[in-house]
Design a protein that fits this description.
The complex is a heterotrimer of chains A (242), B (369) and C (289).
Chain A (H helix, E strand, L loop, with lengths): L1 E12 L2 E12 L3 E5 L6 H9 L6 E6 L2 E2 L5 H6 L2 E4 L11 H8 L6 H5 L8 H10 L14 H15 L3 E5 L7 H14 L4 E5 L3 H7 L2 E6 L2 E6 L1 H5 L2 H8 L2
Parallel strand pairs in A: 3-8, 3-9, 6-7, 7-8
Antiparallel strand pairs in A: 1-2, 1-4, 4-5, 9-10
Chain B lengths: L2 H24 L4 H26 L7 H20 L5 H5 L15 H24 L6 H20 L1 H4 L12 E2 L2 E2 L5 H23 L1 H11 L1 H5 L5 H27 L9 H14 L4 H21 L4 H15 L3 H21 L19
Antiparallel strand pairs in B: 1-2
Helix pairs in contact in B: 1-8, 2-8, 2-11, 2-12, 2-13, 3-5, 3-11, 5-11, 8-9, 9-11, 12-13
Chain C lengths: L1 H31 L6 H19 L3 H22 L8 H23 L15 E4 L2 E4 H23 L1 H11 L1 H6 L4 H23 L9 H16 L4 H21 L2 H18 L12
Antiparallel strand pairs in C: 1-2
Helix pairs in contact in C: 1-5, 1-8, 1-9, 1-10, 2-3, 2-4, 2-8, 2-9, 3-8, 5-6, 6-8, 9-10, 10-11
The chains are: A alpha/beta (242), B mainly alpha (369), C mainly alpha (289).
Chain lengths: 242, 369, 289
């Protein structure tokens, strides 16, 4: 079944067509990787899906519900989670506090007013264990290293428990071991979660991707498995500029 | 239980012991001295109200004095009607012949008390919805609230026939609360104000440590990120603005009782700035610290303005600038730092500095340039 | 009809003063993102400096202008060095710190000169009126309007046509890279702040013949000037100019229709609504988000 359906999506920034008639579907539980040269419109596509940017045309459906006109928080409540290219964690909050904010299955005021901020929670402990931040749970997020910050944001998305997760360069700045660990986590998420991953690291993509879409100048250039993409002539031209 | 919540509760208990037992004993239960102190306590409420919106949610409300003034005038209108025979004296001087419709319900004390809380909350809420739906933030919140304050004060002074204009509302009756005529120079009145402050602080401490408070701190740091977790940021900001405005109104009502008049200076820019100063000196991150800041600054003003009659404001300005520059987190920040250092020193001796269990969330004082 | 024209002239006169004050604020904000709430006190210092020069040295308002500019700019320079420079990374705190500076300056004047009103004579040369039909325009006010345009054009030239201006715009766009190319952003900031303060001083000097000089005169002015800057679009000179005319005229006309207070309230309400729907002002600048 289709989790996300993007149809004829357009957005313009002052005359520049950043995304230009893009259409694709993502199946439930699939890991889709978006590739493409710089400025191809990959991050913009994620921005359009999560609501950071408003499209100038086209449709975005999540589980059949049209979301392209909804505010960001409404889309988040429909189960769309987003990890940003520049790790966006709350630097002045501790690691557990970050996770507590991310646990937002009930984001209403009343619920928030009638709960203390830090109740012990098995889920949070498990997630901290998974990303290896248990030791640092009381540290300020601002004091974490770059790799740890990336982990924390991934952990926050796990805590948020969105079914459709948009990842913008999740392994940037990670060591090889950390990247491998991330790939393992992503594989364990597939099936229960749908992931769209923008990534440049090809070995990581080979590891995790069920399907790949290559973008160029705001449109879809090629689509298929890793093997199909690697032999595609158009893709070579786009990357190498011949 | 989380340790920071635990420390705040202890601090609140100590604070209550001081204002309920220590202060009255120190002033040998003298009604006149206690009346002065009751004034500081009522100002502490408006200072802690600002800490909720500014310290917790990062919304610098420079118009806090407007909502404070609304509470003060609500109470003053009630007390003015109690001494007036139908029509308050100043209305006669201004050729107002019939009691204006807005004044009529203030005959009732319950209406007055409700209005003193709900009118500021409603006005604060309207401004908040207006601003936060449009995602106005940072400096613009300060500007809009300041402009509102200036406009509101002008309006109150302008509408002389309804508000007493520049003179405000004077010659008020004492409050009668369920048969008890409140003598503002009595020990029991002091306890009434102290009780109000305690309730307000307990509410503030609870809010700060609720998930609501945590979400507000998250919004303060990165509102956009918080939206992507599914929180309706505008609603959270609006609610804290309303709560803060209601508390300011409450403080205003008490302030009118203490001073026995209401004046448009309560809604002045300089009064609003004073609130910001108290809150900054005490520490805007903690409601308790903000309240203590208000008490300390006012206490010093009471003592020092006799010594340096004219120089006091100058001194206050200098202290304020120094606090903003070198102690951006106020007295609270200094205490937190000292406690943390002590802990580190102690644990350093035992060679296990792995976990910073005590006072975990200390915000970096010097953010990287 | 005559009333309307006279009111329009009054509005323009008010706009010209607002403009000179707002220009300083706009330049300071546009360059370093600092909201200088002590700006009103710089105006007040300018006014007192003019009064002092007239009472003790017998200098007229016009002759005093360059001296006042230099003196207030020097005060601004010192304040920037001592304080503002340390707060660039904390924009909300600059509001508070400059507000505190405002109190200090105000009290310093109150303690040294006294709280009573001071009066300054306008220049003899410009004492008369120019009349066109029923429209009566004071020569001095005409001069202030012309002078404000001169200051606007001068500031614009400074920002766009000089080497200093080029460096300034480089620092605004990217401080780090500019420093790599050997531009000392700290020095640029100090000079800009001093220049903005100097403009406020000039505004203070120019208004002395029109208003009485008291220590608290800056408080009301800074709120207005600040709204002008925001309405115009932070950091935009053209925006500041159009917003001062808009606000000056709106205040003058609405005051004539209702009364002074209600006119002012209506203008404030209008500004609040305008900021709500155009938070980046009428002429948003692209250089700073």
């Amino acid at each position: 079944m289709e989790h996300l359906q993007v149809t004829d999506l357009h957005v313009e920034f002052g005359g520049l067509r950043a995304v230009d008639g893009l259409s694709f579907d993502v199946k439930q539980g699939e890991i889709l990787c978006l590739l493409g040269p710089n400025g191809a419109g990959k991050s913009t596509t994620l921005d359009l899906i999560c609501g950071k940017t408003q499209p100038t045309g086209g449709s975005i459906r999540v589980n059949g519900v049209e979301v392209s006109r909804l505010l960001e928080f409404r889309r988040a409540r429909l189960g769309i989670g987003r990890k940003f290219q520049v790790p966006s964690v709350y630097k002045e909050l501790t690691v557990v506090e970050n996770l507590s904010v991310a646990r937002s299955r009930r984001p209403g005021i009343w619920h928030a007013l009638t709960r203390l901020s830090l109740r012990p929670s098995k889920d949070v402990d498990n997630i901290l264990e998974l990303v290896g931040l248990t030791e640092k749970s009381q540290d300020l997020a601002g004091n974490l290293s770059h790799g740890e910050t990336q982990w924390l944001e991934i952990a926050m998305l796990l805590a948020q428990d969105s079914r459709l997760i948009l990842m913008d360069e999740p392994t940037a700045g990670m060591t090889i071991q950390e990247t491998q660990r991330t790939a393992e986590i992503f594989r364990s998420l597939s099936g229960s979660h749908t992931l769209i991953v923008v990534e440049h690291d090809m070995s990581f993509v080979r590891n995790v991707a069920d399907r790949i879409i290559v973008m160029n100048r705001g449109t879809k250039l090629a689509e298929g498995s890793i093997a199909e993409i690697e032999t595609n002539e158009d893709v070579k031209t786009a990357y190498l500029g011949h | 239980m989380n340790s920071r919540f635990y420390y705040d509760l202890i601090a609140l208990a100590v604070f209550c012991a001081v204002i309920f037992l220590g202060v009255p004993a120190l002033m040998s239960y003298d009604g006149f001295e206690l009346n002065t102190f009751a004034r500081y306590l009522s100002l502490a409420i408006v200072s802690m109200a600002l800490a909720l919106s500014w310290g917790t949610a990062g919304l610098l409300n420079l118009g806090q004095a407007a909502t404070f003034g609304m509470g003060a005038y609500a109470m003053a209108m009630h007390l003015k009607l109690k001494v007036s025979d139908g029509l308050p004296d100043f209305m006669g001087w201004n050729n107002v012949e019939k009691l204006p419709l807005v004044w009529v319900p203030f005959e009732s004390l319950s209406f007055t008390l409700l209005a003193g809380l709900l009118v500021p909350a409603a006005v604060g809420g309207l401004i908040a919805i207006f601003m936060f739906r449009a995602r106005i933030a940072g400096v613009f919140v300060a500007v809009i609230t300041l402009a509102f304050l200036v406009a509101f004060q002008l309006l109150v002074i302008e509408q002389q026939g309804f508000t007493g204009g520049q003179n405000g509302l004077t010659g008020l009756a004492p409050l009668t609360l369920a048969g008890w005529t409140v003598d503002t120079y009595s020990v029991s009145f002091y306890y009434l104000v102290a009780g109000c402050l305690t309730v307000a602080l307990a509410l503030g401490v609870y809010i700060s440590h609720s998930k609501f408070g945590l979400i507000l701190r998250a919004i303060r740091e990165d509102a956009d990120r918080t939206r992507f977790f599914g929180y309706n940021v505008a609603t959270y900001q609006t609610v804290i603005f309303c709560v803060s405005a209601a508390l300011a109104g409450w403080a205003g009502m008490l302030y009118t009782l203490v001073l026995e008049f209401a004046s448009p200076t309560y809604m002045g820019v300089s009064f609003s700035l004073a609130i910001v100063i108290w809150c900054a000196v005490g520490g805007r991150e903690s409601v308790l610290a903000a309240a203590v800041g208000a008490i300390i600054v006012n206490l010093l003003e009471g003592r020092l303005s006799d010594v340096f009659v004219e120089g006091w404001h100058m001194l206050l300005g200098i202290v304020f600038v120094l606090v903003v520059m070198f102690m951006p987190r106020g007295i609270y920040g200094v205490i937190v730092d000292v406690v943390r250092r002590l802990n580190e020193a102690r644990r350093g001796g035992r060679q296990d500095s792995a976990e910073d269990a005590l006072l975990p969330a200390t915000i970096q004082t010097n953010r990287e340039r | 009809m005559d009333v309307v024209f006279n009111q329009l002239f009054a509005g323009l006169s008010m706009a010209s003063i607002l403009l000179i004050i707002a220009l300083g604020l706009a330049i300071i904000y546009g360059t370093m993102g600092v909201i200088n709430l002590a700006h009103g006190e710089f105006v007040m210092l300018g006014a007192y400096a003019t009064w002092a020069l007239q009472s003790f040295a017998g200098l007229g308002v016009l002759a005093a202008l360059p001296l006042v500019f230099a003196a207030v700019a020097a005060v601004g320079w010192v304040i920037e060095k001592l304080m503002v420079q340390r707060l660039y990374h904390r924009p909300l705190d600059t509001i508070l710190a400059t507000w505190g500076i405002g109190i200090i300056l105000q009290q310093a004047v109150r303690l040294s000169v006294g709280a009573e009103s001071r009066f300054v004579k306008g220049p003899e040369l410009l004492s008369g009126n120019t009349e066109i039909g029923a429209l009566v325009m004071s020569n001095y006010r005409l001069f202030v309007i012309a002078f404000s345009i001169f200051v606007l054009v001068g500031s614009w030239m400074l920002m766009t046509r000089t080497e200093f201006g080029t460096k300034l715009r480089a620092v605004i766009q990217n401080r780090g890279i500019s420093e790599c190319y050997g531009i000392e952003s700290k020095r640029i900031y100090s000079i800009t702040f001093a220049y903005g303060a100097g403009l406020a001083g000039i505004a203070g000097a120019l208004i002395t013949p029109l208003f009485s000089t008291i220590p608290t005169m800056g408080t009301g002015l800074v709120v207005d000037a600040f709204l002008v800057v925001i309405v115009g679009g932070l950091g935009s000179l053209i925006g500041a100019a159009s917003a001062s005319v808009l606000i000056g005229e709106a205040t003058a006309l609405l005051s004539a229709v209702m009364n002074d207070t209600l006119g002012r309230i209506a203008v404030l309400a209008g500004i609040i609504i305008l900021i709500r729907f155009r938070p980046r002002g009428l002429f948003p600048s692209d250089t700073r988000n």
